[in-house]
Specification:
The chain is built from twelve helices and 36 strands. The chain has three domains: about 25-365, Glycosidases (TIM Barrel); about 385-390 and about 525-630, Jelly Rolls (Sandwich); about 405-515, Galactose-binding domain-like (Jelly Rolls), CATH 2.60.120.260. The strands form eight sheets. Strands 15, 28, 29, 30, 31, 32, 33, 34 and 35 form a nine-stranded antiparallel β-sheet that branches. Strands 4-5-6-7-8-9-10-12 form an eight-stranded parallel beta barrel, surrounded by four helices. With about 625 residues, it is of the alpha+beta class.
Amino acid sequence: MVVMRIRNAQKRQYVLICLSIIGFIMYRYVRMPKGGGRMTRKLGLNGNSSQFTLEGEPFRIIGGSVHYFRVQRAYWKDRLMKMKACGINTLTTHVPWSLHQPQRDVYDFHTQLDLEAYINLAAELGLWVILRPGPYISSELDLGGLPSWLLRDANMRLRTTYPGFTEAVNTFFDKLIPKVIPLQFKKGGPIIAVQLENDYGSFAKDENYMLFIKEALQSRGISELLLTSDDHNGLKAGGLTGAVRTLKLQKLNMKYIQELNAIQPNSPAMVMDYWTGSVDVWGDLHHVLPPEDVVSTVREILRRGMSINLYMFHGGSNFGFMSGALANPSYKALVPSYDYDAPLSEAGEYTPKYHLLRDLFSRYSEGLLDMPALHYREAYEPAIMYNHLSLWDALSFTEGSFKSSTPVNMENLPLNNNNGQSYGYTLYETTITSGGLLKSEDNVRDRAMVFVDRHYIGLFKRRSLELAVPDGKEQRTLSLLVENCGRVHHGKAIDKQHKGLVGDILLNNIPLRDFTIYSLDMKPSFIDSLYQAPWKSLPESPSFPGFFMGRLFTYGYPSDTFVKLPGWGKGVVFINGVNLGRYWSIGPQQALYLPGPILNSGINQIIVFEEQEAEYKVQFEEMPDLGMAADIQ
């Protein structure tokens, strides 16, 4: 009997192993089009007729953009499952060069930036992938996703075949492209198409550039269908032979579709970026696109047999200083939230757009998954700030001070292994022996608080170019704390996005000289070092700018929440060393999304850098607050 039981157990184990193998094979092959087993994947996505085909079978792309770098890794699966449950069959994602190569010789493809893991996860969930590797991606990122160290070259011409740019692109692609080659469709992976650059038709400074990008990708082994993507004004200039042109739009204008069909009459029509909402800038309103407008436009696009990608399906957050800025009609910096008024909210909540689109897409899908459950959100008890550290006491914890006879912009500072400073603040100090009229000559990028002997006297911003300095004949210290509020992410002036002081500051029409410069980039290493700083118990009248420290207590598994700072002015919030982004009382955004995975069960350290005023407590709420809404016109 014992022998029989052992044999039966062995049989059961054998059966389980066989079933596991069969399951794995089914996962690898069943999702393929008919006749599309791994060994017979030869045709891929094809655009040589009026309709896409995938491995010879008619295929309509119903896509959605979700960016791995804007979503906590712990939530990748949640967001993609919600996308799959909406009826979407294809994930699109940009690849941010600036995050993957923060310094010339430093690369990061780990944890939050593990692109391979993200693409493999999409495959596991049954999603195809359109990869958009840039090198320029726009995506409302600082400098359009290009690394700021490129600007150290005084002759740099971004997005052209200027040797300094192409050499840097080739070096980055040497690291990036081998990671995605095995993930292509014809090699058994989910990547069915790759986009060349992004929106080049509106830039179009170099007729050889797009050909360079195409060859850079194909020579490294990219063999799937190539796409370009432009608005209707850039369709001709942004495309090239051997790549299917696609459109960007928000309002459907049949003239645009006709232009696309006229330029490429024997190719499928696709809206690569159907903008489901928009971004917000500081000092404005929160922009929304009514759900009924979105659904009617998407319905019409699908009715005409076109493919579509929703940009964004889920926007996520610009943690840290990722946000870009608008250049026209004037400079305006973007808020940290990338909610985008998308179908899935910044915190992964279902919206009316989601439900309406799910109903629409159900007509084009063979059965939808059940909608995943939502994450619990919690309004925690307020965190009381109990410690204070002045900006001036924090300077000894920076990477060091640098002497220069003239101002040096952020990008050309001799730090970070000679890669300069990418983000944050820079402090410039010099001595003066008189008062008078201080002129910025429009050389402040983007905003500077001005101090005399560490007493605040005024603010330089782009429209305020003069400031009175109090009289005094003794030697005094003049300080300018300059903030990079975000580099412009789009437009022809992208080469001119240096930050900090980009030229002379004049006192009584005489240029100031002999500066001591401190980098306050607010990187995790700097914030971590502040725990060793000489913090003081919060005084009744703390000095500004300054750092404030408090604690948030959570119990059990931490939940998502929203950080709100009523009574505070302008600054940056760090939770457990993670930079959640800027806050500013002028709005529209009034609360920062804090994902549960950033929190610990128990004690969580909060540091707030505040420029001018503080209420000394930080609140946590269940609901987002993106400000007063206004319809997109």
